[in-house]
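[Protein data]
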Amino acid sequence: MPPPAAGRRPPFALLIAAFAAVYLIWGSTYLAIKFAIETMPPLLMAGLRFTIAGLLMYGWMRLRGSVPAPTRTQWRSAIIVGGLLLLGGNGLICLAQLHVPSGLAALLVATVPMWMVLLDWLFSRGPRPTMAVVIGLVLGLGGIFALVNPAALADKPIHPIGAAAILIACVSWSIGSLYSRKAPLRQSTMLAIGMEMIGGGVLLLIVGSLRGEWADVHIDAVSLKSIAAFAYLILIGALVGYTAYIWLLQVASPAAVSTYAFVNPVVAVLLGWLVASEPMGPRVIIASALIVGAVVLITLKRRKAPPSSLPPRRTITI
């Protein structure tokens, strides 16, 4: 998905398809990651997932011969983006969930839109958050609060280091997302995404190795369910979902793109209900309504700046 020419909006249907991919696919990866790490070490699993996906995408683009080889500067930028998004973001959350309940993790990850909006405004000369965006963020956090049901977590001790690691992961993911919008990467979005996944995947493998995770690898003990989940995470979660996310960062506002953090837990709960027969009552329905309202406010009610004052950025308001 190449970025649109300057000043042009991407096709609305493509925009909707990309948001649907990030919302639905990444919502499903909660369950897939759970199945994968049942018999696979977390960081090595994540590292192999992104390295394989990145090599497939990078190799395909280079074999086509339509793009020149990336420069050293472009590789450095790709490694920085991959490190912030995949090692600092995905990796820290994988480690933290060894000690933090999934409900609390979902609640903390839902702060990503807040960090994206604030960091974009403070450090990237992005638009000042409008009242509609602020209300949308509050509604979204309220929806996640209702979805997680903190009362059910009251009797579970909070692991302070694990909780802090998730918050650091959210900030790292937000910084990486904003940095990728202006980093000196390849003009070919697909090649840049492959480079980012290779860089982040290799960093995950290095850190996983330093943690001694290879000692926990037992090929004969890896279940068919974990293998199927691992394949899904590569082909769908990484190649499709991650590609859609990076493309959206080039054509949509950070506030709009970050709404995935509100929607993904709802999708995960719905899949748990459909696939694992987990209960779903009025609380989930109310939470879903709040989250949908938040997404609508953040993505559709952003204040438009006068044409003469629009900054020369490849962003749009949707």
In short: Confidence is low (pLDDT under 50) at residues 302-318. The chain has 13 helices and no strands. The two ends are 18 Å apart (CA to CA). The longest helix spans residues 224-251.
